[in-house]
Amino acid sequence: MASDLPVINIMGPTASGKTALACELYDLGNFEIISVDSALVYKDMDIGTAKPSKQEQQKYPHHLIDIIDPTQVYSAAEFVEDTERLIDQIHAKGKIPLLVGGTMLYFKSLLEGLADNLPSADASIRASIEDMATQQGWQFVYEELKRVDPLAGEKFKVSDRQRIIRALEVFMITGTPITQLQAQQTVRRNEKYKFENYALLPDRQELHQRIELRLEKMWEIGFLNEVESLIKKYDLSPEMPSMRSVGYRQALDFLLKGDVRHINEQEMRLKSLYATRQLAKRQYTWLRSLQEKHQFDTFYTPEQGVKGLRNRLI
Fold first, then answer.
1. pTM > 0.70: yes or no
2. Rounded to whole angstroms, how far apart are CA atoms 159 and 71?
3. Backbone torsion region of residue 222, taken as left when φ is above 0, otherwise alpha when ψ lies between -120 and 50, otherwise beta
4. What element of type H or E holds 63?
5. Can you say which residues are annotated as belonging to the binding site for ATP?
6. Are residues 55 and 137 in the same domain?
7. Which residues are annotated as a binding site?
8. In whole angstroms, what is the distance from residue 39 CA to residue 70 CA?
9. pLDDT one-digit tens code per residue, 159-216
10. Which residues are part of a known binding site for substrate?
11. Does 162 lie in the same domain as 78?
12. Which of 119, 214, 249, 281 is at a distance of 20 to 30 A from 223, taking alpha carbons?
């Protein structure tokens, strides 16, 4: 039976002020925070993910932060399972779950449910695809995808390696293109909870300035040293989901292959800035797609969000 207590979703692009808004609300109301961020799940990845500091986490506890190593994988299905369990636990305490983050696939999976006509991952098939990439190159794998699923080939780029692997995996298991299976899915809604959706959407120019300032701070406080420490501690590769996070991907490439590719640090920083801006652009696109199917209220500053949610929830 659905709880009478709401579930508050606060979505927004990177550097929009979501964490600041969540912490201010935490001080005002009866909330517990659940992180909706595919990078914050990783231990030891602190600076590049703009993870709340240990002191901030003590004052403002976040669920689903630091739960796996950077060598591991955390799927949308695992997120939904973990989050629904946490929501039920928080509601049982008489508190309100406050879901905050920018991983829109996680929000979509929670709001609409997971695809019920797609097969589960198959480790052996994935390994065979990765072996193909090692031997023939990712361009070859991408051309194979375009052959069996032209529509997916139009949607993906050769750099979208995990999406390519998944699309080929689904085709190898089912004999049907993933785009065809996705088109057959019916839009569902998670009826277990009373979701209230809020988007934090700053002006684009202001957001770009925030992104640039955040990256400058990252470099100043030792982001490159953090990535060097990760390389020493873990057996990392660029294909791992953790290392495809913006900033980490560029820093890892620079540290491992900079001399060979004649990449200097300034060039690497510019690539990180461009990648982060592209991430924000994709997040805006995801949000527009979700807003077409679900009711949203939009705030343009964290201060506006605090004022609006205080009046409504507290």
1. yes
2. 20
3. left
4. strand 62-63
5. 12-19
6. no
7. 12-19
8. 9
9. 888 889 989 999 999 999 998 887 776 656 778 899 999 999 999 999 999 999 999 9
10. 14-19
11. no
12. 281
